[in-house]
Structures are given as structure tokens and as C-alpha cells.
Amino acid sequence: MSLFWIVISQLAAVETMSTSKKVITREEWEKKLNDVKIRKEDMNRLVMNFLVTEGYVEAAEKFRMESGTEHIDLATITDRMAVKKAVQCGNVEDAIEKVNDLNPEILDTNPQLFFHLQQQRLIELIRNGKVEEALEFAQEELAPRGEENQSFLEELERTIALLAFEDVTNCPVGELLDISQRLKTASEVNAAILTSQSHEKDPKLPSLLKLLIWAQNQLDEKAAYPRINDLSTAVLEDPAI
Q1: What is the DSSP letter of 69?
Q2: Where is the CTLH domain (predicted)?
Q3: Domain co-membership, 117 together with 192
């Protein structure tokens, strides 16, 4: 991410200049990029961090062999992705069982995560029209936790409100039935498993790209320079002068 540091350094440099924009030519910009040295090992670790965190098992193994990056336990990635996929597919009971097989302490020490999984299980019962089973499950499994935690109670009440509408498209909490809700719960479980395995719960690469965008936006106010407009190609485009 040498470009990020170049942008930051230029931003600091132009802070002391006049209000007129400084013009940085492509030649000047590329020279500064070439002067920044980043170790290949650090770049490889950044890529591996992304592949492992996001669960790309085959890509991680192939990259490990090609780059010589440190050994990774592929089984842990596979197991974690099985949990994530189960939640994304609405198989919450299966997901909970798989999490406990991995490490029972994950749910024992994270009551919020366990509640959200149980809440997702309730949502799936409602989605499948199992009204009586949903009410019984809510009363036996979720209500006691709501009595101990006000935020849990509010989330439970929002979920139960789904039963009051025949047409959920007109329900103010209808988004709970969206696939995005499953994805949200799956991401929370994924992060908890990563933390339990002493991994970072979020990949570093997206954060660095966000920092790059922020830094470019800040520098835009101070200078005209070759910038990246499309992160997918990372092509430097000459400034409009």
C-alpha cells in the first residue's frame, strides 16, 4: 500500500502551502511511489490475512504454496465456513451445533451472540409459518433472556411483531426476514470464531482501501495529482488541470 503512504505524505506537505492547489505530475508521483519500499513478505501476509478471514480455503492453500507464506490450518477455515453457510441458509440449529463442536466456550462466553442465533432461529420458524412452534420457542428460550437484558427484550418484541402481519411487506420490522439479516448473524458468528482462534475478526485489506479513499479525498482539496478512481484496476489517472 505504498500509494496510501505517498498520499498521506503529500497531504502533510501541502498543508503548509498556499490555498492554491499544488500540481503533481505523473513523473513526480511515480518516482515517489518507486521510492517507497514495501517487503513482499508483508504484502503476502496481507493477502493471506484476507483469504483466511473471508474463508477462501482453496485460494489460501494455493497462495501459501506459491508464496511460501506460513502454514495455515485449513481445517479451521473449513469448519468456520460450514457454520457461516449454515446460518446463511437458515439452518441455525445446525450452526449452533457446529459452533459447540468447534469450541463450546464461544457461545458460553458470548450471551449476545447466542441470543442473536436464537433470535435468528425464531425468525426462521416465523418465515416457515410455524406460528405455534415460534411462540413456544420464544417463550421458553428467548423470553427468560429478555427478562435479564432490556436490549434482548426489545429485539424479541420486534421479532414477535412479525406475527402480527399477514403481509410482511407492510410490516415495519419486515427487514428481519430479509437475507441481509441472515448475513448479519452469520458475520457475527464468523467474527466470534475468528476471535476464539486468535485471528483478527476483520480482514485488513478493506480497511486499508477505505483509508486510501479517505486520504485521496483529503488530498483532492489541496492538490491535483494522479489518483486511483477505480480500485478494481488500481490504474493511476492523470489529474484534470
Answers
A1: P
A2: 76-133
A3: yes
